[in-house]
Amino acid sequence: MLYDAIIIGAGPTGSAAAKTLCGKGLSVLMLEAQKMPRYKSCSGCLIKRTMDLVQEYFSKPIPQSVMCAPFENKGMIFFDDKGKRYDFPQSGLNVWRSEFDYWLSQEAAASGAELRDQSRVTKIEQNESYVTVKIGEKKSATETARYVIDYEGAVSVVKKAVLGAQSSFITTYQTFNDGAIDLDPQYFYAYLQPEFSEYDAWFNVKDGMLVLGVAAKALDKIPAYYARFIKHLKEKHGLAITRQKMEDKWILPRITPDFKIDYAKGRVFFAGEAAGFLNPMGEGISAGMESARHLAVSMAENFSDPAKIEAAYRERAKPVWERMVRQWRFVGSITDTFSEMR
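^ thats the sequence. predicted structure below, dont judge the formating
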């Protein structure tokens, strides 16, 4: 079968694109490398913009079944590189990304998208008329489409194959703990002091567990950053850990001061983190969903011409890029940690 579009990645970005394309009458295959529902290392704190986008794109509110306690998130609290506090109250929700992403993918499937999990893309080739995607290694299969849309995230097989390069990365590390701390569990806390991280350190609560994390450019630096962060929280906020329940690591693309976005090459298009859309503190869902929607609408309206699709996509996504740049420059203005973004 020749699909109109193959979407790689079944997270919020891919699901938003699939739902939109199916609503325009196009045939869509969604490929997810992992078994669904798949675990995703993420704060799971949805900002109001994300909540509004879900309502607009999927015509449904976010169900309580994907949320974790405390359900309501009241916003973010930043500490700059000198320890000065900045409060940003805003209504939001606290979700488990595994359940939230799965719900969105099922909504996309219900709209007509074919969804296959455990389908890792290992090779991609394109010509003037279509794109061929190889799925799997030993028991491989191939599928073809007029276009491929890559939403793999920070590590993209497709991006490396098509553009010949990958982004530089930030490695994140976080633990989930039983214990107590003298901080409001309904806020997400970000610490920008360089002694704790090369990006940010953070605290939030999920189903009663204290989530504590740090990030660095090099994996071997994480233990020292984490130890200093824990010591700080013990001294300043009475952190007392009784048991560490689990830990995880992840990677984020490192956003550079030129805020470069990779939109497309030929019949292969990128959105979300794969394209380079990522807001400060790793908030990528809103920019991912918005960029995906803009790409899907541009594709449906200019289906016969890849160049016109790219031009329309660039124009529609410009406000998403501008919002991202404003946020990064603001963070750069309050802390030397991100001074390069000013």
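The radius of gyration is 20 Å.
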